[in-house]
């Protein structure tokens, strides 16, 4: 009896090990790329024969000694639904398979941004019954080594019940493509908010790059548990060095009191995310304090405390008394202060902030950071004291390079795709100059890994956002990042959607994702699908100095240069002489050129257009209503020139 049980157990084990298994991307409702060879792959028992049936195709393949197998089906025309049948010891039937156009949608939070958050969301969700549009959501995951399969993910058919959680940019792109092509559209959403480009790039790409091979040589190849322990140790040591005191919760209860002495604490600029200041990519718990002086008259009035937004969670105290709390990272904090809490003289605002991932800290519009006392407003921006008391020991996507490539891209390779849509860059603004190397490296890396040639790679140029009041006088990291994105167009088969006119200077996540998707679709329809049309705004070509004026010429002018209000006066231009000091300039359109001048610059040498974090006011378009990309005509050193990607040690 005992021998029979052992034999039965062994047979069950052998059969279960021998079962054919498919990657999660191969599932009911999937979309396969038309007019290309279709890689199909999976796992089975070592040397097992596997048979694949699809439409009228039947192919067989033998698994290798590790159990891996891959085969390529012949190209198929758009259509379906079909069944994809994989047979080994067991049989897998994947149903409702369509053939059409497949695009990967990737990047950070503005690609992750869901349909239910967009402007007119209710209307968009009501008009979402498009069964030929399918969305695959890749579960967020990270790993120290390339993974064979995803953590989780599923295909969903566009409907009122599902579309709310689709990537909005990807969905509006797909909706436009479907309207024009009337064939199935599949979008694969692999994105994660607050992430830098380096985490989306493979280790092999860094090793082959002269710019990054020294950096990657110092990064150990470890499993995720080992990396987590190393990261926790290095992050704690780094934070303690920055703030000059131990990371500890000792005496935390006293931090809310106005009598507490915080003179030994460090300082941070507010509003401003930690990731863009000395704390960098810290996730954890931080106390922040601000002391203000009030008169006897001040405290007689109704008091309202406005703290803009706090990423992620806060408990806010005034003079030791809790006045409010919130756990929503993008919600404005407005707390009414009860009577008798404020006092004449010194008053202290103390906030316990928990940041779980990305960002961190008090951010948003400076106008929303204030104490209102009746009709009197006391601004609260500027330096705040801070102390880190907890450093999260878990990894973030930005802790080390390649973590998201390993877990959220490599498992998709070599799925047949038409191209990639990309919306990212905000997390790289502090080393914008190096992005000129890092971004093209990632694009080339993905093309190398997928082995499908120089497939289309279309990206979104950063929208307007007034993060640091950057401009031509003090420098603008956002402008420099936009320039790095524009220079990436030197790579073959790339395209860029300019979005300076559809952003929100006070919100890093503008809700108009419809026009973003439409502009990306315009590029694809022209370049990929033969729908010849204008798909770009004017791009700077050359300048010519004539006396006290500079004459600018442009490519991609369409049927002519124009402005948003059809006037000849163009906003957003600045001009400088050899002293490199820029002055606001008069700019007019003449014969499809721009003539720029200023009475303050008699011998001009360079022009800037839209060179600012917040470039809301610029208004140069072509007559097809595509905005011009911001630019500069000089090559003077920028403020991010020497900023490099570094890994915590």
Q: What's the gist of this structure?
A:
The protein is α+β, with helices and mostly antiparallel strands.
Count of extended strands: 34
Structural class, from helix and strand content?
A: alpha+beta
- First-last Cα distance: 59 Å
Q: Would you identify the regions where 5 or more consecutive residues have pLDDT less than 50?
A: 6-16
Task: Estimate percent helicity.
Answer: 10-25%
Beta-strand fraction estimate: 25-35%
Principal-axes shape call: globular
Quaternary status of these chains? Answer: single chain
Q: Rounded to an integer, what's the Rg over CA atoms? A: 28 Å
What's the tally of helices? 11
Residue-averaged pLDDT: 93
Largest sheet descriptor:
11 strands, mixed
Describe what this molecule looks like in 3D:
The protein is of the alpha+beta class. Helices cover about 20% and strands about 30% of the residues. The chain is built from eleven helices and 34 strands. The strands form seven sheets. Strands 1, 3, 4, 6, 7, 8, 9, 10, 22, 23 and 24 form an eleven-stranded mixed β-sheet that branches. The chain is globular. The relative contact order is 0.11.
Q: How is this fold's topology laid out?
A:
Layout: H1 2-18, E1 31-33, E2 38-43, E3 49-54, E4 57-62, E5 68-73, E6 79-87, E7 91-107, H2 109-112, H3 121-126, E8 130-138, E9 153-158, H4 168-181, E10 185-191, H5 203-207, H6 213-217, H7 224-243, E11 266-270, E12 284-294, E13 303-311, E14 313-318, E15 321-326, E16 332-337, E17 345-355, E18 361-363, E19 369-373, E20 376-379, E21 382-391, H8 403-409, E22 419-423, H9 432-450, E23 457-460, H10 477-487, E24 494-497, H11 514-527, E25 539-546, E26 549-555, E27 561-563, E28 573-576, E29 582-584, E30 586-590, E31 593-597, E32 606-609, E33 620-622, E34 631-632
Parallel strand pairs: 1-7, 7-10, 7-22, 8-10, 22-23, 23-24
Antiparallel strand pairs: 2-5, 3-4, 3-6, 6-7, 8-9, 11-21, 12-17, 12-21, 13-16, 13-18, 13-19, 14-15, 14-17, 19-20, 25-26, 26-31, 27-33, 28-29, 28-32, 30-31, 32-34
Helix pairs in contact: 4-11, 9-10
């Amino acid at each position: 009896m005992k021998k029979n049980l052992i034999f039965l157990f062994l047979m069950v084990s052998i059969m279960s090990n021998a079962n054919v298994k498919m990657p999660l991307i191969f599932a009911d409702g999937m979309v396969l790329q038309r007019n290309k060879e279709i890689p199909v792959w999976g796992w089975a028992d070592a040397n097992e024969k596997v048979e694949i049936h699809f439409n009228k195709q039947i192919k067989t393949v033998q698994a290798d000694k590790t159990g891996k197998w891959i085969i390529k089906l012949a190209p198929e025309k758009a259509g379906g639904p079909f069944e994809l049948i994989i047979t080994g010891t067991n049989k897998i039937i994947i149903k409702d398979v369509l053939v059409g156009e497949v695009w990967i949608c990737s990047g950070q939070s503005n690609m992750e941004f869901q349909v239910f958050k967009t402007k007119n969301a209710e209307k968009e969700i009501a008009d979402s019954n498009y069964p030929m549009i399918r969305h695959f959501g890749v579960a967020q995951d990270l790993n120290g080594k390339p993974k064979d399969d995803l953590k989780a993910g599923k295909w969903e058919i566009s409907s009122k019940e599902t579309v709310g959680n689709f990537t909005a940019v990807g969905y509006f792109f797909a909706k436009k493509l479907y309207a024009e092509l009337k064939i199935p559209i599949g979008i694969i959403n692999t994105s994660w908010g607050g992430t830098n480009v380096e985490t989306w790039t493979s280790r092999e790409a860094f090793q082959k790059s002269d710019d990054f091979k020294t950096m990657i040589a110092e990064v150990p190849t470890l499993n995720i548990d080992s990396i987590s322990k190393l990261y926790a140790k290095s992050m704690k040591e780094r934070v303690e060095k920055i703030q000059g005191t131990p990371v500890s919760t000792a005496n935390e209860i006293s931090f809310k009191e106005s009598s507490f002495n915080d003179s030994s604490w460090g300082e941070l600029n507010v509003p401003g995310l930690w990731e863009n200041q000395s704390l960098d990519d810290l996730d954890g718990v931080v106390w922040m304090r601000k002391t203000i002086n009030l008169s006897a008259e001040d405290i007689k009035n109704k008091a309202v405390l406005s703290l803009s937004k706090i990423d992620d969670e806060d408990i806010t105290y005034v003079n030791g008394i809790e006045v409010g709390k919130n756990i929503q990272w993008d919600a404005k904090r407005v707390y009414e202060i009860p009577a008798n809490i404020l006092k004449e003289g010194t008053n202290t605002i103390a906030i316990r902030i928990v940041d779980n991932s990305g960002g961190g800290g008090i951010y948003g519009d400076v106008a929303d950071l204030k104490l209102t006392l009746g009709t009197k407003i006391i601004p609260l921006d500027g330096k705040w004291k801070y102390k880190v008391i907890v450093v999260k020991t878990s990894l973030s996507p930005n802790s080390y390079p390649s973590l998201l490539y390993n877990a959220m891209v490599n498992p998709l390779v070599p799925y047949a795709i038409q191209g990639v849509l990309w919306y990212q860059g905000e997390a790289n603004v502090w080393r914008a100059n190096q992005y000129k190397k890092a971004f093209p490296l990632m694009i080339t890396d993905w093309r190398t890994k997928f082995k499908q040639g120089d497939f289309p790679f279309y990206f979104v140029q950063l929208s307007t956002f007034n993060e640091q009041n950057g401009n031509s006088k003090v420098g603008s990291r956002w402008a420099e990042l936009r320039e790095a994105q524009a220079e990436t167009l030197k790579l073959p088969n790339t395209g860029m959607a300019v979005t300076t006119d559809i952003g929100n200077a006070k919100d890093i996540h503008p809700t108009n994702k419809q026009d973003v998707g439409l502009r990306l679709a315009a590029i694809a329809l022209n370049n990929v699908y033969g729908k010849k049309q204008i798909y770009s705004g004017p791009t700077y070509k050359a300048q010519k100095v004539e006396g006290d004026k500079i004459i600018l010429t442009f490519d991609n002018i369409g049927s002519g240069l124009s402005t948003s209000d059809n006037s000849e006066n163009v906003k957003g231009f600045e001009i400088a002489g050899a002293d490199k000091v820029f002055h606001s300039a008069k700019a007019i359109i003449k014969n499809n050129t721009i003539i720029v001048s200023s009475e303050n610059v008699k011998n001009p040498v360079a022009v800037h257009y839209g060179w600012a974090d917040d470039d809301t006011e610029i208004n140069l378009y072509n007559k097809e209503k595509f905005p011009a990309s911001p630019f500069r005509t000089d090559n003077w050193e920028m403020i991010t020139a020497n900023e490099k990607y570094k890994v915590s040690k």
